[in-house]
Amino acid sequence: xxxxxxxxxxxxxxxxxxxxxxxxxxxxxxxxxxxxxxxxxxxxxxxxxxxxxxxxxxxxxxxxxxxxxxxxxxxxxxxxxxxxxxxxxxxxxxxxxxxxxxxxxxxxxxxxxxxxxxxxxxxxxxxxxxxxxxxxxxxxxxxxxxxxxxxxxxxxxxxxxxxxxxxxxxxxxxxxxxxxxxxxxxxxxxxxxxxxxxxxxxxxxxxxxxxxxxxxxxxxxxxxxxxxxxxxxxxxxxxxxxxxxxxxxxxxxxxxxxxxxxxxxxxxxxxxxxxxxxxxxxxxxxxxxxxxxxxxxxxxxxxxxxxxxxxxxxxxxxxxxxxxxxxxxxxxxxxxxxxxxxxxxxxxxxxxxxxxxxxxxxxxxxxxxxxxxxxxxxxxxxxxxxxxxxxxxxxxxxxxxxxxxxxxxxxxxxxxxxxxxxxxxxxxxxxxxxxxxxxxxxxxxxxxxxxxxxxxxxxxxx
Length: 462
What we know:
Layout: E1 44-48, E2 56-60, E3 70-76, H1 83-96, E4 99-103, H2 112-129, E5 132-142, H3 144-155, E6 159-165, E7 181-187, H4 193-203, E8 210-215, H5 224-240, H6 248-267, H7 271-285, H8 291-303, H9 306-332, H10 338-351, H11 357-382, H12 386-399, H13 404-416, H14 420-432, H15 438-443, H16 454-459
Parallel strand pairs: 3-4, 3-5, 5-6, 6-7, 7-8
Antiparallel strand pairs: 1-2, 2-4
Helix pairs in contact: 1-5, 6-7, 7-8, 9-11, 10-11, 10-12, 11-12, 11-13, 12-13, 13-14
C-alpha cells in the first residue's frame, strides 16, 4: 500500500536530469483573430486552441493593453483551473504590465509527454494571438503545477524565469546552473516547505539567480503581497539583462520596504526571518543596487549573533522531529488502525492552532497526511478496490474536511453502493468546498444514468 505514496504531490513521473522529453509532432497554429478581439482588464476563462480544440486556456490582458509586446507569465494550476491564479494576481499584471495565461489542461496526473504537448500547443497558440516579448517568457505554478513550470523551463530555453509555489523541481531534476531564474514560494504550514528550502540551499552553490519566500499560510497559492515580490523579481531580472531600463523608483521602494521588515523582525528577536529578508533582498538587488551589499552584510552580522545560532538550531531540530514523525506515519499507513489515526489527527489539529514554529510544523504534518490519504484514495478508487478505498477516503475527510476531492471520492464510493442520497449529499459538500468541474462530473461513469439532481448541484458551483 505504501507504494501509492510515491505519486503524492509528484504531479508527473520522474524525469531524468538533463533529458528533454521528445516531442513527436510540431504544432502549427493557423492565423486567428487579432488581439483587439479580446477584452482588456478582464479574465477570459476559456480561449480554445486552434491546433487542438480539446485544449484551452484563460488569459488576462493588463490595463495597458497589448498593442505593444508584453512579458508573459504562463500559470499552471494542479487542477487545470487556468482562471484561478489569473483572478488572484490580475492586479499585479496591471501593476507591472504582464500578460497572464493559465492552462485549462495541465493538471496533476499528466505524464511528461502529455505535459510537453500541452506546453507546445499553448505556447504556439498564445504567440499567434498575443503580442509577446519573446525575451521575457516566464512560467509559474502551484503544487504539481510548480513542477510543470520547472519542467517547461528545463526543456524550453525561451523560458527565462520560474515561480515554484508549493513544490520544488520535477522529481529527478538535479540543481545546476540554470539559464532561468528560480523563485521558490511556500507557506510555513506547507508540507513541501522543507523541499523548497533544500532547493534554495542547493541553488546557493550555483550561479542560478534565485530567491525563496515563506509566507504565513498552508499549501496554497501565495497571497498577492508575496507574489508581488515574485513579479518584481522578474522585473529586476529584466533590468539586469538590460531588457528594461533600471527603475530606480521600484528599486528604492523595495529597499525601503525590506529595511522596514528587517528592523521589525530584529526588534521582535525573530532573527531567522530577519536573515531571510536580508537574503531575499540581496539576491533580488544583486547587480542593480549598492544596497545589495548592505543587506548581505546585515545578514552576516545577524547570523553571527548567538540568538540567531540558537534559533537556527531550534529550527533544524524541529525539521528533524518532523522527518521522524513522517517516518513513523509511513509505517502506520499499512496498519489499518483507524483509532490511531483519529487520535493522531485530533491531536495535530489542536496543536496546529498554535501561532508558533511548532504550530506550523503540525500544519505541515496535517497537509502531509492529507496528501498521503488523497494518493491512497485516488489509486484505490481508480482500481475499484472499494473496501480499502473507503478506509482511506474516510481518513481523507477526517484530516482535510474542507477538501472537495475527499467528498468527490466519497460520492463515487456511495454511488457504487447505490446510496443515492449519500451521493448527492457528498457532491453538495464537494461543491461547497470548491468543486466546479462539470465535465468531470458528467464523465464519471459511476454517476451515469443515476437519479442525481445535476441541475441543483451545478447551480451551486462557483
